[in-house]
Known about the structure:
Elements: H1 13-34, H2 42-52, E1 59-63, E2 70-76, E3 82-90, E4 93-96, E5 100-102, E6 108-111, E7 122-127, E8 134-151, E9 156-172, E10 179-183, H3 195-212, E11 223-232, E12 238-248
Antiparallel strand pairs: 1-2, 2-3, 3-4, 3-5, 6-7, 7-10, 8-9, 8-11, 11-12
Amino acid sequence: MKICREYLPRLSRKGRIVRNLVTVLVLLLFIWALRDFAPPTVALAVRWRAEEYGLAAPEILYCSEWERDRADLLLRWEDGRLASSRCYRWLGSRSVGEFCFAQPEDGGAVLFQAQTGTPADTVYFWSDEPEAARAECRLRLRSDIQASWTDESAGTSASDHFDWDETYVMESVPSPQGIYCFPITLKYPNEENEAALRTKTMAEESALRSYNNIRRRVVGTDFAAELSVTFYDAAGQVLGTWEQELWNSFPGGADR
């Protein structure tokens, strides 16, 4: 069957632009529906997640750089409460994980990384110290750790017990929102062919994993974490120090 072109309406240039725009919008709506109407922005994803908790939309204090389509989020509400979470992106959409809440004490608060079960690589800290130009963080981790490994291909293995007691010293400058990001530098990084260090590497990962699990209070026995943050003004003078024992499950310790 032949279609007579003279019976088809001819669109003006403006009409073609409108037609193409409508087509694109319909296609985007269809794709959005297929993805269960996932929010397209981090702010909207945070707002929708907050509504599930019965809360208003918080201020996004910090969003880390995307790594493998994941980013850490730090949030604050008008009543002063804080929370950490993790944001995910996929094909233009965003989603936000559960909130881990924190309440400031003495003008500061530790915000744990949202991904538990993995070793922490950053200490997030919020402070309302207005005069601070920089800060030094000291994180002391103590633990009773048994580490072992086996390399069947090489026919080698090792097992060691550690009365772990290491202190990590880090520095950071505050963001305008009062967020400090203290990156943790491993003392015993995983180096290939360094069999002698492998058990220490595993022990360090275990200690940092336990620290990161404090947020869910699923830390095992014989572990302690202490944190102190010292603030300095622009002239290098000490303004004060914030200290807290975050966890202590050794005999006689008081789990927080």
